[in-house]
Design goal:
Blueprint lengths: L1 E4 L5 E4 L1 E3 L2 E3 L5 E3 L10 E6 L2 E6 L5 E4 L34 E3 L2 E3 L4 H37 L4 H30 L9 H16 L22 H4 L10 H9 L6 H15 L20 H13 L4 H9 L15 H6 L12 E2 L2 H11 L36 H5 L17 H9 L1 H17 L5 H10 L5 H17 L6 H14 L6 E2 L1
Length: 517
């Protein structure tokens, strides 16, 4: 298998199967930039078990398979990516085509072969220059046509674009002829066909006219499996068919309250930890009935009345008495505890587990390390461990996911309805032993040491981490633990600092750190 990957380190890679397992040999890889949304030309030459893989005309990757070749099949595949294969040519490798083996040419080049390769290289450069000139001319003509199609200046730019495009076609024909004469396998035409193409290109160049190929800004989505690429490349109509607008209007029509109900159910679930309709993915007859149908309908109508403003619904919920209630059942009436122990009627607020992104961001924020920059490119998986950006900007997919976030119930890329909540030992281990937790605990301790006297450190750390003041027993337990850690670290020059960092780590493992009350 031969493939390109843009993931660090971007490279060309040779892989083969041995004893039913894929092998990725280190000497079968070559670093190579693989920019996305660009066309890449891969030329694979095979002679025996010797491979020469060239990408975009650069020096080839040379690799000799340690296994014997055997009959098989050809596959064009992508993995965790989307690609369009524009052309594929398969042909027998001519005997006189030289191969490179470990830096040595497999067979000597004679003078004729050298001159042929020189002509090919020169023709390729000329064609590349003509391609750039044609793109610039077509782009200028497209802008002019969009502005004032009937002006004399536009007419001249269209003529220049037509001339440049036909010049490019001539240079391509010249390049194809040079490659055909050298017997290169990737050229689909023979010498006679290449010469005929040159004659046709020269004839077209004598009278270029104004017709040119406009640049393709976007490609229409395929509507069915019978639609051709030629139809998808046609210019977009000046007037919309109205089908998408009709669908949007139907979805958001007041006579279709389902949309508003689904939306407010999701918003409610994220604020209260429990949705009004348990089956957030199914509002049909097989789904669960709403616990508060009148409330669900009232919120849905309120959202539609306020021009579908989700901000209004958020503000309405977080300023309500129901949202601002305590999560504690201490001091609650016996009737509430007896009649509604599960809090179905919202006589108190539900405690919730903090989302995985908020757990990581809280660690960084407490240490003063969180990067609050808005927007920008997503942080790829290999760079996430060292990144200080908010977890919101982390790239994750079904294949590539951040291990720390996964431990605390990361969102499932394949399921957008609701996150699952879990309490597992790995979460405590992550807050105790992970590099992120240990490093941030040390920095939080250093940050507090600058503003807090030693005697008040335990109280300030408890309040800083858990957002409420400790009781007398909690404060005594913290100070006693820190005294023991000082004793254990007395041989270290930074013993007191180490003891404070250990107290921070213990507080980060407190249930209240990852719980919203």
């Amino acid at each position: 298998m031969i493939y390109l990957t843009p993931h660090a380190p971007s490279r060309i890679q040779v892989s083969f199967k041995k004893d039913g397992k894929h092998v990725y040999p280190p000497d079968g890889a070559q670093q190579h930039a693989v920019p996305l949304n660009q066309t890449h030309e891969i030329i694979l030459r095979v002679r025996g078990n010797l491979l020469n893989v060239s990408v975009n005309g650069k020096a080839p990757l040379v690799y000799r398979l340690p296994i014997e070749r055997r009959p098989g099949k050809i596959e064009l595949i992508t993995y965790d990516a989307s690609a369009r294969f524009e052309e594929f040519v398969l042909s027998t490798l001519p005997a006189d085509v030289a191969m490179i083996d470990g830096g040595k040419v497999d067979g000597p080049l004679n003078e004729k072969q050298v001159r042929a390769l020189l002509r090919i290289a020169e023709a390729k450069i000329v064609h590349a220059d003509a391609t750039i000139a044609a793109l610039k001319a077509r782009s200028a003509a497209d802008r002019a046509v969009a502005g004032d199609q009937a002006s004399d200046a536009t007419k001249k730019l269209k003529q220049a674009a037509a001339l440049a495009e036909k010049s490019q076609a001539l240079e391509l024909a010249q390049w194809n002829l040079a490659r055909a004469e050298a017997g290169q396998a990737e050229v689909k035409s023979n010498v006679q066909q290449a010469k005929a193409a040159i004659d046709a290109a020269r004839k077209a160049l004598q009278n270029p006219g104004e017709a040119y190929t406009p640049l393709v800004g976007s490609v229409k989505t395929r509507e069915n499996n019978l639609e051709t690429d030629a139809n998808r490349l046609k210019p977009f109509p000046k007037e919309s068919t109205g089908r998408r607008a009709a669908l949007a209007q139907w979805v958001a029509d007041r006579q279709n309250p389902l949309t508003a109900r689904v939306a407010v159910n999701h918003i409610w679930a994220r604020h209260f930890g429990q949705p009004l309709v348990a089956t957030v993915f199914d509002f049909g007859r097989k789904g669960a009935a709403p616990t508060h149908p009148a409330l669900l309908d009232w919120l849905a109508v309120e959202m539609m009345d306020k021009n579908w403003s989700m901000k209004h619904i958020h503000r309405l919920i977080v300023t309500s008495n129901a949202y601002r209630m305590t999560t504690s059942s201490l001091g609650a009436s016996e009737k509430n505890l007896k009649d509604d122990p599960e809090n179905r009627y919202c006589w108190r607020m539900n405690s919730q587990r903090m989302e995985s992104q908020a757990v990581r961001d809280s660690l960084l924020h407490l240490a003063g390390e969180l990067d609050l920059t808005r927007g920008g490119a997503p942080v790829e998986t290999p760079m996430q461990e060292a990144s200080k950006r908010r977890s919101l900007y982390f790239f994750h997919s079904a294949i590539e996911r951040n291990k720390f976030l996964m431990t605390f119930d990361e969102a499932d890329p394949l399921d957008c309805y609701r996150r699952r909540d879990s309490i597992i030992p790995q979460q405590a281990l992550a807050l105790s032993n992970s590099k992120l937790a240990v490093t941030m605990a040390d920095k939080i301790a250093s940050r507090l040491e600058k503003s807090t006297p030693p005697k008040g450190f335990a109280r300030e750390a408890f309040t800083w981490i858990l957002s409420y003041a400790p009781t007398a027993n909690e404060l005594a337990a913290c100070e006693d633990a820190m005294a023991q850690w000082v004793e254990l670290n007395k041989m270290r020059p930074d013993g007191h600092h180490r003891a404070r960092a250990q107290l921070i780590q213990a507080l980060l493992n407190h249930n209240d750190f990852v719980t919203i009350r």
